[in-house]
Amino acid sequence: MSEEITVSVNSYGSNRPLSLVYFDPVSGRKIAKSSGTRDWREAERLAGELEKELRAGRYAPASKLTWADFRKRYEAEKGPGLSPKTMAAFRTAANHLEAVLNPDRLCKLTAAVLSRFSAKLREGGMSEVTLGSTLRHLRAALSWGVSIGLLPAVPKMVIPKAGGARARAVAGEEFDRMIAAVPKVRPTDSEAWIFYLQGLHLGGLRLEESLILSWDEDAPFGVDLTGRRPAFRIAAKAQKARRDERLPMTEDFFRLITEATPEAERHGRVFKLDGLLTRCPITPKRVCRMVAKIGKAGGVVVASTERRRKDKATGKLVPVAVKKFASCHDLRRSFGTRWARRVMPAVLQRLMRHSNIATTMKFYVTMDADSVADELWGKGWGEKSGNTSCNNAHPTTTTAPADESTEAVEAKEVV
Question: What are the start-end ranges of the H helices in 84-171?
Fold first, then answer.
């Protein structure tokens, strides 16, 4: 808004509140806003405040934009700068909003309306974690609307606090059971899946990262052998931090992938998980489901939660115990838990590729009572940390010698 904007007080009838009047510098239209009072002195005070807000660009009238148009603008203008995963999460959140409330105007998304929206999702059985994610993506979109003047302010939302990790790490003996279960689930290409699980266990890779990790120099996420030590070379578009980086790789992971892949074959994807019929790369969602299926076949339960589901007989929501079997992220969690005992938090942050060390401290630099007892009794949590019964062609996690200090381990195994 221009600094030349002036707001005057006008009367449009003795029985009506005084009006605050100004001319929009863009459209030139005369705009009258009720002051809510018939006291001239109070109206002049309000006119002064409005004038300051207009000149500072802080005032915005109630938006007449429809929710549908707002969503289209957000996806077209903001969407290209977001990762595909973030954009997909926003679309899911927006779909929930439309299914429950079906708002016609953007300005109708008030704090009270969004509180009712949260209550409806809870009644439908949505978990607190999923509800929190849904509200956060909606809040991010509404914040963008405020930043470009489509809304005067972001409505308040009560977002559930994120708890700790939803599942625990996979222990060494449990990992062995998963490896033993692979031939039952993938009898035709079991060797490729065993290699992949060992890669997740030793590399600490996220699901999407693991499937695009490449030997090629121009890949967005690749193996970099140009430095003094092997490392991961990550392009901005391939990671959550959205910046180009070269990050450390552990010695045992490097030995795993190099011993399993002859030098002449080191091109393209490191982990080649292809469909048996299509011979095309399997999608991340299907890989995630397959690893969970392997975890189930191995009997590795990492969490048990209570969900509310509709009873077919009564139609009412009833609590049901749901087991969570080991999946890709639980193997990454094992990597972080294992290395948390061997390196300092700052080094672990680099290994886990967390942009904020608070995430590392919250989820990995902790020890429960059993873990402390194991340390006191001389039984480390990860005595068995790899495959001891299947396909020994692929090495498993190395353990530092008893006389080796933490600093020596860092210097030896961390870039």
Answer: 84-100, 111-123, 128-147
Q: Where are the beta strands (DSSP E) in 217-300?
A: 221-224, 231-234, 245-248
Collapsing DSSP to helix, strand or coil, 45 comes out as: helix
The domain boundary residue, chosen from 147, 180, 195: 147
- CATH at 74: 1.10.150
Question: How far apart (Å, rounded) are the C-alpha atoms in residues 115 and 275?
Answer: 44
Shared domain check, 231 and 120: no
Q: Which domain holds residue 222?
A: 165-415
Provide the 8-state DSSP code for 25.
T
Tokens of 397: 């996690």
Helix 190-203 to helix 328-340 angle (10° resolution) is 40
Number of folded domains in the chain? 3
Q: Residue 218: which H helix or E strand, with range?
A: none
Alpha-carbon span 414 to 292, nearest angstrom: 30
Angle at 80 between CA 75 and CA 84, to 5 degrees: 90
Domain presence at residue 320 = yes
What pTM does this model have?
A: 0.65
What tens-digit pLDDT sequence spans the chain (415 residues)?
445 788 999 998 888 999 999 987 666 778 888 888 999 999 999 999 888 888 776 665 656 789 999 999 999 999 988 888 889 999 999 999 999 999 988 988 999 999 999 999 988 878 888 899 999 999 999 999 888 878 878 999 998 876 555 678 899 999 999 999 999 999 999 999 999 999 999 999 999 999 999 999 889 999 999 889 999 998 877 666 677 888 899 999 999 999 999 999 999 999 999 998 888 999 999 999 999 999 999 999 998 877 767 777 777 777 777 888 999 999 999 999 899 888 898 999 989 988 888 888 877 776 556 666 666 676 544 544 444 444 444 444 433 333 343 333 333 333 3
Which has the closest alpha carbon to 55: 25, 32, 28? 25
Whole-number Cα distances in Å, 320 to 28, 206, 364? 62, 30, 29
